[in-house]
User: Fold this.
Amino acid sequence: MSGVAAAMLALLQRDLRLALRRRADTLAALFFFVIVVSLFPLGVGPERELLRTMAPGVVWVAALLASMLSLGRLFADDHQDGTLEQMLLAPCPLPLLVLAKMAAHWLVSGLLLTLVAPLLALQFGLPAESLGVLAASLLLGTPLLSLIGGVGAALTVGVRGAGVLLSLLVLPLVAPVLIFGAGAVEAAAAGLGVAGHFSLLGAMLALALFLAPLAAAAALRIAAE
Amino acid sequence: MPLTDINWFYYAAPQRFVPLAGRLVPWFGAAAVLLGLAGLWVGFFVAPTDATQGEAYRIIFVHVPAAWMSMIVYLAMAFWAGIGLAFNARLASMMALALAPTGALMTFLALWTGALWGKPTWGTWWVWDARLTSELLLLFLYIGYLSLHAAIDDPRRADRAAALLALVGAVNVPIIYFSVQWWNTLHQGASVSLTRSPSMATTMLTGMLLMALAFWAYCVAVALARLRIIVLERERDTAWARRALEAA
Assistant:
């Protein structure tokens, strides 16, 4: 195995191990997701038809908010204990290391949300075929949240009030992900094809997979000056 | 004179640019006032009443130029931010910072006048139309740029971080625009359309062009005036800035 891949794998394993050691932090974001989704029926009333039409949007918005919670720590902890400087000095392309960290973030946030989401959607009375589409749309869309959000996290490293600022920066940028993610489920519920939505999500994912690590690496270099 | 003999970076030095900006601001300001007065006169007194929308359409003379400027200023801001990031040019970064509040103001103005126009013509202040929604997201992008810049104390670091955000936003703007447009057509079809009737009276077009030029001149004047203040504030410890401040 080449040195770069070994370094990326080591970083990925380290971040996953840290997430496992700090289980409370990881689970807090997950429970935040569950609670936000469960609050909507209390707010708008328990009518089944209304809840069913709202479900894709509610689940997606809650997923967006929940991933913002854990993004704040993506680089902040490393910045505080000096690991970030070691990453900047490492003889390995920084964008690839950043990509490994983003992948770890997705595994402990996006993937968990994707696994829980169908259960919540069941509470909203979403039909079975829509559940699969919802899970698939989250599977394609949540990596985008980690990638684009990672750029925001890198920009706000070591900044006053980083948490709120991060949401302010990232949420408008991920609006297209929300549109096509929730739109796919709604299209499926309406009996329309979902291929277009998935294709666009996939296209955005390919674009972000290339550009976001570069942008985040540039932001980290600015932050470390 | 051959092009290579021109020193293209002559005015990139802040101490040379500040006096130039000081000389340009009154001209652009005067142009904004005169063109604005002419445009408003054409818009209110010369342009005919619209056959379908009555007098309410006249807000177009403020709304459309503001909407144009909101997008043009974002492009200009991202351009200067990119130049500042790529060439480490201080003045370009300060230019981007000087443009941002004006762009945010234009976006807000476009949304506000749009709401005022929507009430009498569509009977509602707000619809989730594609253009309105993307304009709202544009306002959020401006606010994000300004708040990121404000949150970082070191001005050079703030310039570079905000520039990166502006560039990421510039890549995202077309994606946001088209996604919102497709989202809208999926949701509600063409219930309301902002497209005007193609037969626009010549006087209306004249008024709108005059107002667009007036808005353009206003944005340039305000951005340059703000840029002078930013430069003088940051360079206040240098000898030339002190002389400039004492002379003023």
Q: What stands out?
A: Confidence is low (pLDDT under 50) at residues 188-193 of chain B.
